[in-house]
């Protein structure tokens, strides 16, 4: 081979060392990039791109308001370490629970509205509301009068602070007494358990037991509670018998025999015969008084209840059970179960 042939460059099959290292370096860089991307910490939302676009990069914007609602709904709180998919599931659960409770509340509200509508439509409720409104108007009028009197007294005794204090205290006491009124209890014969026999003052056993367990117990509690310091005391129980206008076609004997009953002799109320509705109303009031006296004899605090004086009256058919602007004679003649009733009220008559 000549010298000139040795100077001609030739190309081998295998790459050079430099190319090999360069290739390995590129592969290593690619592997590191892939591992780095795989292990790179996420923003707590992972692949849930829809949630990221909705609330940003922090699930607190979902968890915190949702946890406040879950606390109200008595559901378990969602902590900060749960996966986004579980946050979405909890959000769905929270919404379902909230909708269920809202529907339940709506149902209850509707039931209450229906009950209120029924009560407002009843004649008894309308009558009671009218009575309360009239009583409230009377109290406001009395309060205005007291305020005017107070202003005049303050003007008169303006230079005396102690006198003003006494006047203010007296005014407060009067206002408290105006608002601290004892209950007015009515027993209507519209209830099956609270009925006298027609034209009679005899009370059945169910009638007596009902009075003892309900009306008499309520009256006794009211009397005993008013023994506390600061309450307005009562000293009299008034019992008024009301009847309807159905006439009684018989002669009465109250003028002859009633004094014996009132004098606590052996004569009984059942021996009395009413000759009019006024007689019948009085006899029924006396029958209720008799049962009240038996009730307090069996009561543990009878020493307090016996201080209450009892007065019995008859209203006969003179007071209609409903309000009518211009009543006519026939209104007082009608047989009406609503008119046959007993009224009991506590008041203060003796110690003024």
Structure, explained:
This protein is an alpha+beta fold and 352 residues long. The chain has eleven helices and four strands; from the N terminus they run αααααααβαβαααββ. Strands 1-4-2-3 form a four-stranded mixed beta sheet. The protein is elongated and about 145 Å long. The termini are far apart. Mean pLDDT is 78; it is low at 1-11 and 41-48.
Q: Which word captures the global form? A: elongated
CATH superfamily of the largest domain: OmpA-like domain
How many domains make up the 3D coordinates?
3
Helix content: 40-55%
Radius of gyration: 45 Å
What's the tally of helices? 11
Structural class by SSE content: alpha+beta
What's the average pLDDT?
78
In order across it, which strands form the biggest sheet? 1-4-2-3
Largest sheet: 4 strands, mixed
Task: Chart the SSEs and their pairings.
Elements (H helix, E strand, L loop, with lengths): L2 H4 L10 H23 L9 H7 L4 H13 L11 H38 L1 H34 L4 H19 L4 E5 L16 H21 L10 E7 L11 H9 L14 H21 L4 H4 L3 E8 L24 E7 L5
Parallel strand pairs: 2-3
Antiparallel strand pairs: 1-4, 2-4
């Amino acid at each position: 081979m000549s010298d000139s042939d040795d100077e001609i460059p030739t190309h081998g099959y295998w790459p050079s060392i430099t190319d090999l290292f360069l290739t390995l370096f590129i592969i290593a860089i690619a592997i590191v990039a892939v591992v780095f991307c795989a292990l790179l910490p996420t923003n707590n939302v992972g692949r849930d791109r829809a949630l990221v676009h909705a609330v940003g990069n922090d699930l607190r914007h979902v968890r915190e308001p949702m946890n406040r609602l879950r606390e109200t709904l008595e559901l378990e709180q969602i902590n900060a370490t749960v996966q986004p998919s579980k946050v979405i599931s909890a959000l769905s659960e929270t919404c379902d629970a909230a909708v269920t409770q809202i529907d339940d509340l709506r149902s209850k509200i509707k039931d209450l509205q229906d009950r209120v509508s029924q009560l407002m439509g009843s004649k008894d409720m309308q009558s009671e509301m009218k009575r309360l409104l009239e009583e409230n108007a009377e109290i406001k009028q009395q309060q205005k009068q007291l305020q005017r009197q107070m202003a005049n007294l303050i003007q008169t005794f303006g230079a005396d602070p102690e006198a003003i204090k006494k006047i203010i205290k007296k005014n407060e006491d009067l206002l408290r007494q105006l608002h601290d009124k004892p209950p007015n209890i009515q027993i209507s014969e519209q209830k099956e358990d609270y009925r006298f026999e027609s034209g009679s003052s005899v009370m059945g056993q169910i009638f007596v037991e009902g009075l003892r367990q309900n009306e008499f117990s309520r009256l006794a509690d009211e009397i005993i509670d008013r023994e506390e310091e600061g309450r307005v005391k009562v000293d009299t129980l008034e019992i008024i018998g009301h009847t309807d206008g159905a006439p009684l076609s018989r002669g009465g004997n109250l003028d002859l025999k009633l004094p014996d009953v009132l004098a606590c002799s052996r004569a009984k109320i059942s021996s009395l015969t009413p000759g009019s509705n006024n007689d019948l109303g009085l006899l029924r009031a006396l029958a209720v008084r008799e049962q009240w006296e038996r009730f307090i004899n069996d009561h543990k605090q009878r020493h307090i209840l016996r201080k209450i004086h009892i007065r019995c009256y008859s209203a006969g058919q003179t007071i209609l059970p409903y309000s009518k602007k211009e009543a006519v004679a026939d209104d007082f003649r009608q047989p009406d179960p609503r008119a046959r009733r007993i009224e009991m009220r506590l008041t203060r008559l003796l110690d003024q």
